[in-house]
Specification:
This protein is of the alpha/beta class. It contains 23 helices and 14 strands. Helix content is 51%, strand content 13%.
Length: 580
């Protein structure tokens, strides 16, 4: 692991270029200096630099950040709507939001593109709910299932139940949007919003990205239930692995002896000997006499009739209980509509030449989200990477998740697409685990998360090196992580022109990373929010909260902005305008 100061500011990366007269690859050294303010800010005029300095400075004042929502409401009353919007566009809105609609964002997108930076479009309109309203909506969407379950025994684990004290899923979350279920019509409207975003991405840039959230497309209750099924099934595999003395290994290293596995399943009372024998008959499982986690998962994928009837032992109580409860007719319809919406979005992404990134969410939803994303990848990533799954590296199981999904893509021959992030729900996840009483899923500290991020990243880079079917988005504002990536690409001889390794940062943040990378030929993207001023206020509120910690922790971006402003003034560039 590299420490924060172990790499030089100027990082050398190998760019493999093809000579016009020969097919041999030549290596050209490129120095990327993240302290070179001329390169970092050449796309900004002086007014934009001053705005960045003002906004970042304001984000360091606790009172302004804590009361930002109230202060914006007060400003609207005092100045009136028109003046308020003008003030916002001169400050926070202008810094973090590209414009109000598809047309108004085009100039910024084209300017960034001219300086080597692409776009991930994100329509950032959010519901402005009170905490009480959010809790009410969250609990109401779980009500039908809870009523149904009172007719029998509720075997659900507490992690996968709704809890009123955590009903407002925005609590402790500043860097991710939250959707609350109202009805199917609203899910359709949110799908249309994503479709418009995909179309705008296709029309505004070449090889653009668009981002979606699964909780916007259906009842989150389904994601909770499906996640619990997947986690219980995996935990059952771990129990069987422990019986064969194979606990504590990496996920893919656990290979269960098939005959011993059949005996264990029979002894546990999961099924009779003939039934269990039939599960594996006709499946391409265990040709070597062993079953690994991917083989095990395929049982629940391919044999839905098995999963509907299957009982498995509860690890805590030892009692047999159903893996999956039956859905009502209405629940079945809602689940199908959710899957149909996902399918429509993926097809539109293909038609518009846009890649789709599925955002990660809370751990009680994420197993289901990842599985649905994998199903899309199996269908749409056959010829090139269209669908990207997001992996949160603050999770203890992040490496297992990446390695298992990667192996599935190898076996089935489709393109693996991953976006690596540190994670957005840490405080909420920790608080929920402690209060409700289950194991904290988060790595113990920031350094452990850094190690996990770099471990996952290096694993994907090695796969790219050996098999060009893997692709990764390094979504990070951490300069050391970007340097680490460039060093590894250098060592492996990975070319940025192959478009296998992408970099991503938020609009209005870390330009000193994004623009030097883009101008050196690396695929780099800004996450570009847009929407009407009044309707993106919740987004801007979260940006202010996120930037408080970011700006207090590092003075680097502000010092670089001051450095460039002084350089221009000394060189007589008072009216500097970007040329492109």
């Amino acid at each position: 692991m590299l420490s924060k100061n172990s790499l030089p500011v100027a990082v050398q990366a190998d760019l493999i270029i093809q000579s016009k007269n020969t097919t041999d690859a030549q290596t050209q050294k490129i120095e990327i200096d993240f302290g070179n303010t001329h390169e970092a800010y050449k796309s900004k005029d002086n007014i934009e630099l001053l705005r960045s300095l003002l906004v970042f400075k304001l984000c360091t004042f606790d009172f302004l950040v804590d009361k930002n929502k109230e202060l914006m409401d007060l400003s609207k009353k005092v100045f009136g709507q028109r003046l308020f919007e003008r003030l916002m566009k001169m400050t926070f809105y202008g810094q973090f939001v590209a414009g109000e609609d598809h047309n108004s964002i085009k100039p910024l997108i084209h300017k960034n593109q001219a300086f080597g930076v692409g776009s991930v479009l994100d329509y950032s309109v959010e519901e402005d709910l009170t905490q009480e309203e959010a809790e009410k909506k969250e609990m109401e969407q779980h009500y039908v299932s809870c009523c149904f379950l009172t007719l029998g025994v509720d075997h659900r684990e507490k992690k996968y139940k709704a809890h009123r004290q955590f009903g407002d899923r925005r609590g402790g979350v500043v860097s991710a949007r939250t959707y609350f279920y109202a009805d199917e019509a609203k899910c359709d409207n949110q799908m249309e919003t994503f479709l418009n975003c995909i179309k705008a991405s296709g029309g505004a840039s070449v090889d653009g990205f668009s981002a979606i959230k699964m909780t916007a497309l259906g009842r989150p209750q389904f994601l909770l239930q499906f996640s619990e099924v997947l986690v219980k099934w995996r935990r059952f595999f771990n129990l069987l692995a422990a019986q064969q003395g194979k606990s504590g290994m990496d996920a893919l290293e656990q290979k269960l002896e098939l005959e011993q596995l059949k005996e264990s399943l029979t002894q546990l009372g999961v099924g009779n000997k003939d039934d269990i024998e039939n599960w594996f008959t006709g499946e391409k499982l265990g040709p070597s006499g062993t079953i690994d986690l991917l083989d095990w998962n395929s049982l629940i994928n391919d044999r839905t009739s098995i999963s509907n009837l299957l009982v498995i032992p509860n690890v805590e109580t030892g009692q047999l209980e159903p893996l999956l409860r039956k859905f009502t007719v209405e629940e079945e319809k809602q689940m199908k509509r959710m899957l149909q919406r996902v399918d429509v979005l993926a097809k539109h992404a293909v038609e518009n030449g846009v890649r789709l990134m599925v955002d990660a969410e809370q751990t009680y939803f994420q197993p289901a989200i990842s599985r649905l994303t994998l199903e899309m990848q199996r269908i749409f990533n056959r010829e090139k990477p269209i669908i990207f799954n997001t992996y949160q590296c603050y999770l203890k199981e992040a490496y297992d998740n990446v390695s298992v999904d990667m192996e599935l893509s190898r076996r089935e021959g489709w393109y693996f697409g991953a976006k690596l992030v540190r994670g957005a729900y840490m405080y909420q996840e920790r608080s929920r685990a402690e209060e409700i009483g289950y194991e904290d899923p988060i790595n113990p500290d920031y350094e452990a998360t850094n190690r996990m991020y770099h471990k996952c990243l290096e694993f994907v880079l090695e796969e790219i090196n050996h098999n060009r079917k893997a692709n990764v988005m390094v979504a990070s504002h951490n300069e050391d992580t970007v340097k680490f990536t460039l060093e590894k690409m250098n060592q492996m001889g990975l070319s940025p022109t192959e478009n296998k390794v992408y970099f991503g940062q938020l609009l209005g943040m870390c330009d000193q990373i994004s623009f030097p990378l883009g101008q050196a030929g690396f695929p780099v993207y800004k996450y570009v929010p847009y929407g009407p001023v009044n309707e993106v206020i919740p987004y801007l509120s979260r940006r202010a909260l996120e930037n408080r910690g970011f700006m207090k922790g590092s003075q680097r971006e502000r010092s670089l902005l001051w450095k460039e402003l002084k350089r221009r003034l000394l060189n007589g560039q008072i009216l500097y305008k970007p040329v492109y």
